[in-house]
Amino acid sequence: MHAKGNPCSCCSFDDYKCTAEWLLNKTRHRPKIAVICGSGLGLLADSVSNKQTFRYEDIPNFPVSTVPGHEGCLVFGDLKEKSCVFMQSRFHLYEGYSLCKVTFPVRIFKLLGVETIIVTNASGGLCKDIKAGDIMIIKDHINLPGFAGQHPLCGPNDERFGIRFPCMSDAYNKDLRKLALDISQQLGYSDFVREGVYCMVSGPNFETIAEARMLHILGSDSVGMSTIPEVTVAKHCDLRVLGLSLITNKVSLDYSREEKVNHEEVLEMCKMRAEMFQNLVNTIIAKCDQVDGINSN
Ligand SMILES: O=P(O)(O)O[C@@H]1C[C@H](O)[C@@H](CO)O1
Ligand SMILES: Nc1nc2[nH]cnc2c(=O)[nH]1
């Protein structure tokens, strides 16, 4: 339980401050854009120049990554003349981390001066017209762990970050979503980029067929094991959020289908779509100052 007067017993405001100050003292980069790289998507950081990399284990208070396909590095650098920071791997609830630890980096980004966050993930497609290899721009989400009380903002609220009852009906910035759609069209990606609703389950197992059917009936277009805690904390502290999901597999909704999903298949699809995904993210970063209120350095 959270201790009284201390918003969270595992991460205090002093912890966040100490980590942010440590990073600000070690790097000259002052990023305005942060990117969280999902499973197998760490290469999104490959195209930055003036790169400075910190291993998670060397950063005070940072958790470490335990999932294959997650490199465990924080990469600062310039991309298309924008100062950026990339998380080459994220933390998941199923690794045993509290949601406070899972979302720790988001508040660090806020304290570093980040204004926009691009959150990426790998997920399984639930609706008929979504194929493996497609990219889904996240329009909205269903926070299933949140319904069950696994929520990163539970416990006393820290007003230094945001309000007690944040609105989530506009969690995914409309202008950034439009920009991502327009860029997809310009790049000739329209056939495999669409908007949709992402649902988070805690994992680590993939869905049963009955569970997949239920999630689909509830309005989910894809399902994964991350992203929503980070987006919730980002929205709470007033960061602009764009969510991009690579559909790495079709989730089986049919008892007669034989295929069985596994993590290797997820990573393989990330490799196959890496260039396209990277191209989309890079172009969004290059053009995101076209969106109102977004700082261009
Ligand atoms: O970090 P993300 O959400 O991209 O990772 C997905 C969900 C699981 O961690 C893993 C399953 O293969 O990939
Ligand atoms: N829960 C879940 N997470 C995924 N991550 C990538 N594919 C899937 C999937 O099918 N289900």
UniProtKB/TrEMBL annotation:
InterPro entries: Nucleoside_phosphorylase_d, Nucleoside_phosphorylase_sf, Pur_Nuc_Pase_Ino/Guo-sp, Purine_phosphorylase. Phosphate binds at S39, H70, R90, F91, H92, A122, S226. GO terms for biological process: purine ribonucleoside salvage. A purine D-ribonucleoside binds at E207, N249. Pathway: Purine metabolism; purine nucleoside salvage. Pfam families: PNP_UDP_1. One of its GO terms (cellular component) is cytoplasm. The keyword DNA damage does not apply. Keywords: Glycosyltransferase, Purine salvage, Transferase. It is an enzyme of class 2 (transferase). Its EC number is 2.4.2.1. Residues 32-286 form the Nucleoside phosphorylase domain. SUPFAM superfamilies: Purine and uridine phosphorylases. GO terms for molecular function: purine-nucleoside phosphorylase activity. It catalyses: 2'-deoxyinosine + phosphate = 2-deoxy-alpha-D-ribose 1-phosphate + hypoxanthine; 2'-deoxyguanosine + phosphate = 2-deoxy-alpha-D-ribose 1-phosphate + guanine; inosine + phosphate = alpha-D-ribose 1-phosphate + hypoxanthine; guanosine + phosphate = alpha-D-ribose 1-phosphate + guanine. PANTHER family: METHYLTHIOADENOSINE/PURINE NUCLEOSIDE PHOSPHORYLASE, PURINE NUCLEOSIDE PHOSPHORYLASE. Catalyzes the phosphorolytic breakdown of the N-glycosidic bond in the beta-(deoxy)ribonucleoside molecules, with the formation of the corresponding free purine bases and pentose-1-phosphate. Preferentially acts on 6-oxopurine nucleosides including inosine and guanosine. Belongs to the PNP/MTAP phosphorylase family. This is Purine nucleoside phosphorylase. The lineage of its organism: Eukaryota, Metazoa, Chordata, Craniata, Vertebrata.
